[in-house]
Design a protein that fits this description.
single chain; about 325 residues; alpha/beta; 10 helices; binds zinc ion
Length: about 325
């Protein structure tokens, strides 16, 4: 039998432009082996964008990546996070403590901070969404057992010194970066835009690989918000994207178009499924939408993605939900 233990990657640093370094940090997630933090020269130090996830040994990986390009955590003058997911903000606490710098973050970070403050309530809240989506009780119990007392990849809560909202500027040696709010992937998501060089730090809003993910239940219409954010970023006309995972890429317009196409296809697919097979719970809809059965590995992601499309279709008047037994909701075409 093949060795199932995946060889863990090591933190690695590389210069991508004069004054801009990519810090590639390992992640423990299947299918997502690493994330990026970006260091930008700023006076006698750096502005650090994103942090990597916190777990045993993770600060040593950040130190290792920085060391490869002659940077140090102690020279971080400002920490800016693109959004409040653990792989982008998880190490904020030790970084802020070591560097004595501020953290800037979008104010709608409760989707993460509530989890970090009160993981049990957050877990129950997630289970309740799953239950009303039609997930069977046995699967809910198994999930609760797996996640109970689980680690969320966050070293601790840091109160942001500044709200990262439209119009906020971050100055660096490469010029001023402007904050562009881009909710969708997460309600707290922002991109950083450097207009003279047409550089975009895109977090998880745009990745080299088209792979939509949304936090369900923390905003009105995550899929609709994501589509609006794609339009916003398209108007910038960026020439190079520095994304939260993977390599930089220059075909920014192509990536935006591919994201938009995929999201519209999935929304249309969800509408088809509930129109022809409905009423259906989200749990029943998922295998029809994705053409594959649910597994413990994909369930969380696919159910919340499907719920986001159902919610978008509901907000735009194309589907309605019907409350059923025990509050389980079924969806049908309007
Ligand atoms: Zn994310
Ligand atoms: Zn990420």
């Amino acid at each position: 039998m093949a060795d199932l233990k995946r060889k863990r990657e090591l933190g690695r640093g590389e210069r991508v432009l004069p004054g801009v370094w990519r810090l590639r940090l390992p992640l423990p997630w299947p299918g997502v082996p690493h994330c990026n933090a970006w260091a930008i020269a700023s006076g006698d130090g750096i502005v650090l964008v994103d942090t990597g996830m916190h777990e045993p040994g993770s600060m040593a990986q950040l130190d290792r990546a920085m060391d490869m390009v002659n940077l140090r955590v102690e020279t971080v003058r400002l920490l800016v996070c693109t959004h409040a997911h653990s792989d982008h903000v998880g190490q904020a606490k030790p970084i802020v403590e070591r560097a004595g710098c501020e953290l800037w973050l979008h104010p709608r970070h409760e989707h993460l901070t509530q989890t970090a403050f009160d993981p049990d309530t957050a877990l129950e809240r997630r289970l309740e969404v799953a239950r009303t989506s039609g997930v069977p009780a046995a699967a809910l119990d198994a999930y609760r057992e797996r996640r109970k007392g689980g680690d969320y990849g966050v070293a601790g809560i840091v109160e942001p010194a500044r709200d990262l909202v439209d119009g906020v500027e971050v100055s660096t040696d490469l010029g001023t970066w402007r904050v562009v709010e881009t909710p969708g992937h997460a309600p707290s998501h922002v991109c950083l835009w450097q207009p003279e060089r047409r550089l975009l730090i895109s977090g998880d809003h745009l990745l080299g690989r088209v792979s939509p993910y949304y936090d369900y239940g923390w905003s009105e219409d995550p899929a609709g918000e994501f589509l609006t954010s794609l339009d916003r970023v398209e108007d910038l006309d960026a020439r190079l994207c520095l994304s939260g995972h993977g390599r930089t890429f220059s075909d920014v317009a192509g990536h935006i178009a591919a994201n938009r196409t995929l999201v519209h296809e999935r929304i249309a697919r969800v509408l088809d499924v509930v129109t022809y097979d409905g009423p259906l719970t989200a749990f029943e809809a998922v295998p029809r939408v994705f053409g594959e059965p649910l597994t413990p590995l994909n369930a969380n992601w696919w159910i919340s993605e499907t719920l986001c499309y159902l919610r978008h279709l509901e907000v735009t008047g194309r589907v309605v939900r019907e409350p059923g037994d025990g509050g389980v909701e079924a969806w049908r075409a309007a």
